[in-house]
């Protein structure tokens, strides 16, 4: 699998930010139904997510699938769950 260069930047989704409340810290970690703590790349996936969040990015490159994944703060800012099974959806019941 080809890994993007460090300067790779996916195009950010154009969703308007409607929720300006701060994201609670406990919602930064994906629900176990969306990413099992037993996943072999769990720590690497969380590190990629944390790096993207720290850099203010809406997306990160998933080390497992190679796809672009939306961050929890981006999904929180949307203000609702779209029921697409997003890994970092902060709106699912916990």
Characterization of this structure:
With 94 residues, the protein is α+β, with helices and mostly antiparallel strands. The protein has one domain. It has helices spanning 42-54, 72-78, and strands at 59-61, 68-70. A two-stranded antiparallel sheet has the order 1-2. The model has no long low-confidence stretch (mean pLDDT 89).
State the end-to-end CA separation. Answer: 33 Å
Which overall shape is indicated by the principal axes computed on the Cα atoms?
globular
- The tally of structural domains comes to 1
Report the total helices. 2
Beta-strand segment tally:
2
The poorly predicted ranges are none
H/E order of the elements? HEEH
- Trace the largest sheet across and list its strands: 1-2
Q: What order do the helices and strands come in, and which of them pair?
A:
Layout: H1 42-54, E1 59-61, E2 68-70, H2 72-78
Antiparallel strand pairs: 1-2
Core attributes:
94 residues, alpha+beta, two-stranded antiparallel ribbon, globular
Overview in brief:
This protein has helices at residues 42-54, 72-78, and strands at residues 59-61, 68-70. The chain is an alpha+beta fold and 94 residues long.
């Amino acid at each position: 699998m080809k890994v993007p260069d460090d300067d790779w930047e996916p195009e950010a989704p154009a969703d308007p930010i409607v929720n300006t409340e701060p994201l609670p810290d406990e919602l930064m970690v994906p629900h176990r139904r969306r990413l099992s703590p037993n996943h072999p790349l769990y720590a690497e996936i969380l590190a990629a997510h944390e790096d993207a969040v720290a850099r203010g990015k809406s997306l990160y490159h998933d080390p497992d699938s190679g796809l672009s994944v939306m961050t929890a703060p981006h999904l929180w800012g949307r203000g609702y769950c779209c029921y697409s099974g997003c890994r970092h959806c902060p709106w699912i019941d916990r």
